[in-house]
Amino acid sequence: AQSVSQHNHHVILSEAASLELGCNYSYGGTVNLFWYVQYPGQHLQLLLKYFSGDPLVKGIKGFEAEFIKSKFSFNLRKPSVQWSDTAEYFCAVTPNSGGYQKVTFGTGTKLQVIP
Amino acid sequence: DAGITQSPRHKVTETGTPVTLRCHQTENHRYMYWYRQDPGHGLRLIHYSYGVKDTDKGEVSDGYSVSRSKTEDFLLTLESATSSQTSVYFCAISGGGRLSTDTQYFGPGTRLTVL
Question: What is the model's pLDDT at position B30?
């Protein structure tokens, strides 16, 4: 079974600071990787995803993530955060097998951006 | 946005009463899921469905049952609600339709409080 670790539970940054949120997974096969964002009081929205190809994935709102297979990592980055990025961020992994997907979510990282 | 609605959006009930939450999709997706979200636990899968009348248990299925009589509707029932079931419940869909087939899309959530 796969698992996901998000080591940072709560991150506080000032506006314009750079962001990197860690995500590590464990699984013996090929995986699909996701980052979801949940703004206060809202549902999860897809930020970006990696299935195959270029390991540097660009998502919405200036976010990107890099898949490093040797490190089983899929860290999320943004060069300059804004107050509106205050949200909770979830990393997720699923086996790359199509059909029903057992998606495993990390426990989330709460990002607070201070104006 | 994915065409997923959940009802009710908020509910307060008493211990021991039955509760049914509804998830409705207009995307004709094959797979539907029920998750609960609790602080420190991220999202945990309760039950999922891979077709009409085809359902299976997730990792936290005790105390919950589901039914899917139509492609578009997936019901989650708490037979006898307990305070430990106080949570935010999210429905998700995947697998076909106009949205990416390998990504889960989430509904707006139902906040359930069991007193």
Answer: 87
